[in-house]
């Protein structure tokens, strides 16, 4: 019994001793690690003259710009500098001296060039590159260029002109403004249209008031004059403006709209997306001649793989109604049939009618 009492006393004593030892050990330094040495003595100091971001204002596309910064070692030890990362391949930092790393003695200076290419960017441009140093207070200097990039030639209101509703009975005129922000002396050398017999053009310089309102140095107005008799139906024509600008010698405009006239097309297009190759399909369009007049129609153009015919559709003795039949024959190979039907008429005021067609032929 005495032996068990002695054993309990020994165990309790050991536990108490370990608790005292743990409490006496500092909790803030559980491991005995060496402390990193603090660098003392002379140090380099990199100083860049001016702002680190250069605001260049405006530039044109496909242009090359360059900005130079002066960097001086105003410290008491050698300053090491080298090129770091850049925001893109179009922006490159260049040290004025050869080598991947440049060393400047105290008081020495060097120049750093940032060269950038605008490429085909339009709008805001913010690019730069990093310069790395051994200056403990300024290990990195980010040098940036910022400004606005303009296209070589600007067209207002844009490359697509929507005439919306147009009457084939009446002439219609619209214009587009054309100017070059980076080369105000740019000239328009020629204008071509897809239908010169119906689309006449002329070019005139902008007036002083127009230039002032747009804050422009020079520019032109290209007038697009739609002649009476333009083909009835959906319009999609092209206007090509040629300039002497080296970076945009050709500007293509698309002119769209719906042309109405003495003949109405109802519906104005034929579209089917569920045509089965083994069954074929057919559709009809009604042609209504104003005033119930009679007219003769001939098919001047149609997509391959479809049959087209026009016949009178006199209903209840009403004249001036015709039926345009469109047929996709049985066995037509699967695929998309897309295009337009062009009808010629013998009416003096209506040369052509256009009816867009689109059929998706499936294998089942």
From TrEMBL:
Transmembrane segments: none
Range of residues in the leader sequence: none
Gene3D superfamilies cross-referenced by the UniProt entry: Immunoglobulins
Protein name, UniProt field: DUF1573 domain-containing protein
Organism, as annotated: Paludisphaera mucosa
